[in-house]
Amino acid sequence: MPAAPRATRRKGDWTGALPSQNAVMVRLSFGALAMLSDIAAIIFSAAAAGVAWHGLFYDGPGETEWFLQLGLLLAVLTATPNLLANHYTIDNYVSLKGHLRTLFLIWNTAFLGALALAFLTKTSAYFSRGTVLIVYVVGFAALSCARAAMVRLVRSGGDGGVVLTRRIFLVGRESEIDAFLRRFAPRACGMDVVAAAVLREGDGTLADDLALAAASARMLRPDDVFVLAPWSDMTTIEATVNAFLRVPAAIHLGPEQVLHRFDEAHIARVGSIQSLFLVRRPLNPVEVVVKRGLDLVIAATALVVLSPLLAFVALAIRLDAPGPVIFAQRRYGFNQEPFRIFKFRSMRTLDDGATVPQVSNDDPRVTRVGRWIRRFNIDELPQLFNVLRGEMSLVGPRPHALAHDQAYERRIAFYARRHNVRPGITGWAQVNGLRGETDTDEKMRARVEHDLHYIDNWSLLLDFRILLLTIFSPKAYVNAR
Fold it and tell me: Are residues 82 and 172 in the same domain?
């Protein structure tokens, strides 16, 4: 005879239940605090930046009242979209991920709106161009710091069991409940698991287990119920949902294993079709145009500015070892379309066949000049011409030789997704020290993970960050050979 159904509550997995009324008060109070934090950061930073700028470059601190009014206007234009989009909820503050990208878009929109209003009201003359620029930079920095501080507050409160704002009830097989607790650590997300109802294996037990689980949930009154069953097990899912429809709580279908790979998975609607959205299009048409414009401007400028260096390196290569100055090798680009990548020749061989040996430490094929230009990434500069030709971007996944691409695609999951955007001269993997020889699948897998993170989280701000890190970060020069 099967054991009696049970609702488990393991010591150490969660704390005592937080009264629902207190949870609601915490959520409302936090939302107000988060909004006030943004508003205060913007107003005070605008006033301080304006006064400091005028104190340094003009006679006196200027009209402080005008700086406060500008800060108030920016605060209203920034806080209102956040409030309407329901961003000031405690659930959005368990992680900093996504905040900076959203803030960057809203801050730029707010600033453009403030400038337009100043122009229409003929008050723009009160602010110098330097004041506008410093308020823009300092304001965004202050807003970002305020968000980071609020995220830190929530995370520390969750770790200490103080900020537990959602009371959740788990129902599923014991292995599925354990896996959920290990992977998501509900306490760190501000959630209090009030109980977990374990469904037994075997025929004829499901109805009894669900009846006990629903009765327990009605007594504990959780905010949310998570049904932890494989999505293919429709019998268990339908029976569990039907049992818990009588419980005054939100019901969630727990995450399927495949969703662990996708950060932005959500229910979406395409026309009249409702679907599970897993991966967004890498770049929408507007983002493609913006990124391409940035590539053209910076690549053309860099070629003009760096032309003396390019000429000097070309001469050094010619004098150092016989062979061409530029080495062109076949690589896969956007949508796996082949192209020839340009590099300053740094080796005595010109491998471009079915077998391309990777460069290793003290590789005898590397020339004296080649070792120097590879050490400082100078051998990659001719790829600025690939950028102008539209075959590459300044920032993106680094392209590999065709032989390596074909081999890794067979062995590493999602490798081919790297070709969903133009390859780059530099990338997120490179500025995080993932360069050099990939003599193990683990090294290449780490690169692929960083490349996919870049594709799924692209923004102009991220591109600028990578470009700066490429020049100034020591990690960008690690393992350069």
Answer: no
Residue 393 lies in a domain: yes
User: Is residue 401 a contact partner of residue 423, using CB atoms and an 8 Å limit?
Assistant: no
Taking CA 417 as the corner, what is the angle to CA 414 and CA 423, rounded to the nearest 5 degrees?
135
Give the contacts of 361 (CB within 8 A, at least 6 positions apart).
Answer: 437, 481
Apex CA 88: angle with CA 85 and CA 92, to 5°? 95
Q: Which of 243, 277, 311 is the last residue of a domain?
A: 277
Determine the Cα–Cα distance for residues 99 and 96; give it in Å rounded to an integer. Answer: 6
Residue 12's domain spans which residues? 6-18+164-277
Q: 461-473: per-residue pLDDT in tens?
A: 899 999 999 988 8
Instruction: Name the helix (H) or strand (E) containing 157.
Output: helix 129-159
With a cut of 80, say whether residue 158 has pLDDT above it: no
Give me the amino acid identity at 395: V
- Helices vs strands, H then E, count in the chain: 15, 11
The pair of structure tokens assigned to 249 is: 């709580």
Nearest-Å Rg of the Cα atoms of the chain is 28
| 277, 302, 335 - which closes a domain | 277
